[in-house]
Automatic annotation (TrEMBL):
GO function term, MF aspect, one: aldehyde dehydrogenase (NAD+) activity
Active site: residue positions: 263
Keywords carried by this UniProt record: Oxidoreductase
Similarity comment text for this entry: Belongs to the aldehyde dehydrogenase family.
Ranges where the Aldehyde dehydrogenase domain occurs: 41-481, 532-749
Entry superkingdom: Bacteria
Pfam families: Aldedh
Protein's name according to its UniProt entry: Putative aldehyde dehydrogenase AldA
PANTHER family reported for this sequence: ALDEHYDE DEHYDROGENASE-RELATED
Enzyme class per UniProt: oxidoreductase
Amino acid sequence: MNVREIFETMDYGPAPEDAAQAMAWLDAHKRTFGHFIDGKWTKPARSFPSKNPATGEILAKVSQANASDIDKAVAAARKAHKAWAKDAKTRARVLYALARLIQKQSRLFATLETLDNGKPIRESRDIDIPLVARHFYYHAGMAQLMDAELPDREALGVCGQIIPWNFPLLMLAWKIAPALAMGNTVVLKPAEYTSLTALLFADLSREAGVPPGVLNIVTGDGSSGEAIVKHSDIDKIAFTGSTSVGRKIRSETAGSGKKLTLELGGKSPYIVFDDADIDSAIEGLVDAIWFNQGQVCCAGSRLLVQEGISDGFYTALKARMDKLRVGDPLDKCIDVGAVVDPVQLETITKLVSESAGDIYHAACEMPEKGCYYPPTLITGLSTADNLMQEEVFGPVLVATTFRTPGEAVELANNTRYGLAATVWTENVNLALDIAPKLTAGVVWVNATNLFDAAAGFGGVRESGFGREGGWEGLAAYTKSKGKAAKLVQIAPVAAPEKADVESLDRTAKLYIGGNQARPDGGYSQAVWSPKGRLLGHAGLANRKDLRNAVEAMNGAQGWGRTTGHLRAQVLYYLGENLSARSDEFARRINHMTGKRGGAAEVDASIDRLFTWAAWADKYDGAAKGVPLRGIALAMNEPVGKIVAFASDDAPLLGLVSVIAPAMAMGNRITLIASEPYPLAATDFYQVLDTSDVPGGVINILTGSHTELAPQAGGHMDVDAVWTFSGRDLSTVIEREAAGNVKRTWVNNGKGHDWSKVDAATFLAAATEVKTVWVPYGE
Ligand code: NAI
């Protein structure tokens, strides 16, 4: 094209980035890599190629890690841990040096990323790499502040981290920076398609003074990932990738005591109201679904547009799509680059070809060779269609319409995922009314795909659990200092040879939806005092009773929308009404346990209710000052529906200490009472009845923990399961929880000290941070 033609067409000429430096680095390593373990390169073994998806060219060969490589990496990380965890100030300096290093080598990283992944250089240069540097800066600060601000927390130990190929270096930064800042050492495995920037990072990390063993990078496919997950000397697994692998990892780690965070897939809604700034909303869509070829876990891949404007919107959108430039990712003028691998291209092609919708492929010029897929819009699908529900992970947008804001929310939430959502409207009232109603970990208002180290990122439902970024992200890389109490397992008192039966039997049923309900199975257990007195009967709940309790929790959804002020009053009232009956409860506890601690336990329970009443209106969120036009609001939302197994000991205090924080934060809870001492819980029904607790917010079942644990863990309509039971139910609960990727809080054979209030842990378990990005300021 000559100058005259350029002026006539106003088209861009090519502006290719020079790949020479990246190639020179690969050449310096003879284009063959081992693993980076204990600060050194291992000898390459079982190599496989890493290709440039734009050309098919083999860039380098990387090694496939086997169990023995993982062993070595974990051993190095373990050896380095103690010294690294000791000195937060040194860590701050090393992380700062890493941030500077990323900036100093930003072009090298950006070019290598684009070569290996196929993403446009514009994106790797202007988005990925700057965000990587930002993450290290931010977490250098977290290391600096750790001793002062988190005096009760310490590192977990060795973290195994497994990341995907869509943002290779950025995902590495999201995983490594908080882990290292908090004093952990890591073994990280990049995705098999995109290992090269992780290896470059490892190579350069020595220049930032990262001590040997603190950072270990092993390469390989899913089997190397599995070896990390299975390794017995790893304290935490952090995973980002597909929901199906996330599920596998959940079951694989069940009961192992390994901490786990999962950042999984999504089918995020992009909602456009009829008063939206249409041009901006369309430009936003370019960033939502054509950014990184749509290979983004939080991509706005499901367009919901208000019916009145849909025709015009689709027309304008198609016009914009036709103007997108697809081609050589190293060309700075390119909008859409190459899909990561032929395998992924095949998946996208197959998913779209099987769709019965109206398929529109952008009329843009397509490269003749390489791994490219055109920007695509599919309309005319029903809400249940595969492509409306399943993640494509490609440049494919599906769209449908809605009429009312209520319908928009229903459609948006009609998915098993809950990662992100975008809302476009010029009406601030509408945007801020919709944001809390969306089931998603992140909501963007009049913007999309914004990320920052200070703003927590992560999902709900089958999009996983745990947050990355912000103060909330640190919880996943730290634990409370101090030793755990011993797990107390208490056997129910056996029937005596000569029974002492009271004259009038009080029948305790189950407490479901604010009513007393007979156990479905028609079985009860006798509860004896150690002195041989029959104290009463407690129903044996089964799977159907649990199901009814979940239904009752569904009926009490409004509790999550009540104010903290109201919830505080209900909790105070519970305390007041318990106090009015304290003698009766104290006697009951003494009879059941055969000890004299009843009065003190009742007193502590009243105090506990007051503590959680106090917290109900004080666990505020935060406004994060992000370096973009806007603020990110961190809103503490209730987790939803929780099933909890009470501890064997402390029959009343153990119950109150669990239901009160759950309630205070707006959750609904079904508690399975202490198995040996269930009658304090059944007596508590009457306190609940007189304290304005709406039916279904608290449900109490009595019965066998072992029998109910798999049912609770596997229930697809429960959001979290907690256990303090004397029987160690950790394995079964976590394994079953993989089904809908629910949150779990299990005790792994450790007890709980009910004499103290571990407010931070309960508050974190009872809430989920939703990050809402809103325009603010200039
Ligand atoms: P994947 O989930 O299989 O791979 C992600 C990472 O996990 C890679 O490092 C891989 O080696 C590792 N891995 C695979 N199997 C493992 C196992 N059993 N144990 C431990 N680690 C294991 O994702 P994949 O196959 O690359 O892509 C398939 C689909 O997953 C995509 O089409 C997309 O829909 C989705 N995906 C979602 C991502 C997200 O961020 N939400 C990221 C990548 C893929």
